[in-house]
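Look at one such:
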Amino acid sequence: MSKLVVYFSYSGATKRKAEKLAKEVGADTFEIKPKVPYTVADVNWQDSSSRNVKEHEDPSCRPEIAEMPNLSGVEEIWIGYPIWWYTHPRIIETFFDQADLKGKTVHLFATSGVTGIEDSVSELKTAYPDVNIADGKRL
């Protein structure tokens, strides 16, 4: 059974957790990289004109991904991301929209100092009912 840990990491915290998880479960890793990388100014949640605020406020926003992984043969996938605005960044929805996740078991994980992953898991299960999202964990 082929396994893959896919992650989006701005600061490096999620990347470190993804790499550790991949070793534990015997999986390869793939980093979700935005076509237009985020800058420090882009993630300034205190600036209402910053990119991450604008993306959060627009539910239809789907930041472009530079490259998608080949998921053929992958049966189990872990998808990781930082918690932004109490949930997942919109680029995770881009991934869900573009990836063929049918027939795969999906586990979610998130990095956050305080906020849990529960709202994100609920939102993704509602938005993608045909995807088998098994669980979610804040690391």
The mean pLDDT is 95. Helices lie at 13-25, 51-57, 90-98, 118-127.
